[in-house]
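INFO batch 0412 | record 1 of 1 | parsing
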Amino acid sequence: MNQTKNCNPDEEICISFSEVFKIIHDIDKKFENMQRREIKQEDLTTSQFFILRQLWEAKDDLKFKDLAEACNCSRSTITGVVDTMEKKGLVKRVQYPSDRRSMLVKLTKKGEALKKSTPSIDSLTDNCCQGINTEELGILISLLKKVSESLV
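INFO prediction complete | emitting tokens
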């Protein structure tokens, strides 16, 4: 069987993984738009919202390196977003106690307070995908994990 295409000769149907990735990309864009609509009132970008979520979940200061890994982006990208968030008074940089060369990102009171007024990821997704039952969701997650693990 060809790894990039799954063809059924009886039905003359051919599905490629590129189609799967296009659908995943479309879903990601729609989800990002959903997020953007929900956080617009707080004057946040999706990147800023994601960093706030990481800090809220960590319940502690985070290193730039850890934020970059969690956001799947470079440290320089995180630095730019954090710069803007600092100007808004949402976060501040603090010296890492045991390494003077490292900086931590810390929530300010204003950044912490936004947790109450912004939606959780679960609340954003609660009303979507109502045609998918628990068993189907489990299969979808399992298959997407397989695809993710197969990529280098």
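INFO post-check: The two ends are 21 Å apart (CA to CA).
INFO record closed
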